[in-house]
Design a protein that fits this description.
This protein is of the alpha/beta class. The strands form 2 sheets. The protein has a 3-stranded parallel sheet, with helices on both faces. Strands 2-3 form a two-stranded antiparallel sheet. The chain has a single domain, classed as Response regulator (Rossmann fold, 3-Layer(aba) Sandwich), CATH 3.40.50. The chain is 39% helix and 17% strand. The C terminus is likely disordered.
Length: 109
């Protein structure tokens, strides 16, 4: 689980884990995090339509999306929606952990 890979990072607090896009939005509104990691597909569907909603709920939020779907069209939609990063799950958690540690915005997949 990604939370397990991120939890040892100093200064990082896991505010919650969501199974659905609507749960993710509620957590962002409640906890106002600086960073959100988001699977491309959650139990209630694609997270792409929720990316602008998450950004509206928390201006300045860095959203990191990860997926098994490396389709360039999907990647473009994710990044155009406002996500800072889009990673391939098959690369493991390391690229996501490094992006969180760096706190930087790049558009890599």
């Amino acid at each position: 689980m990604l939370a397990d890979a991120l939890s040892p990072l100093p200064g990082l607090e896991i505010s919650g884990v969501a199974d659905t896009c609507s749960e993710a939005l509620a957590l962002v509104r409640t906890h106002l995090p600086a960073i959100v990691t988001l699977d491309l597909t959650l139990k209630d569907g694609s997270s792409i339509p929720y990316i602008p909603k998450l950004l509206a709920a928390r201006p300045g939020l860095m959203i990191i999306v990860f997926s098994l779907n490396v389709d360039p069209v999907i990647q473009a939609k994710v990044l155009q929606s406002g996500a800072a990063h889009c990673f391939d799950k098959t690369q493991g958690a390391d690229p996501i952990v490094e992006a969180v540690k760096a706190g930087t915005v790049t558009t890599s997949f």
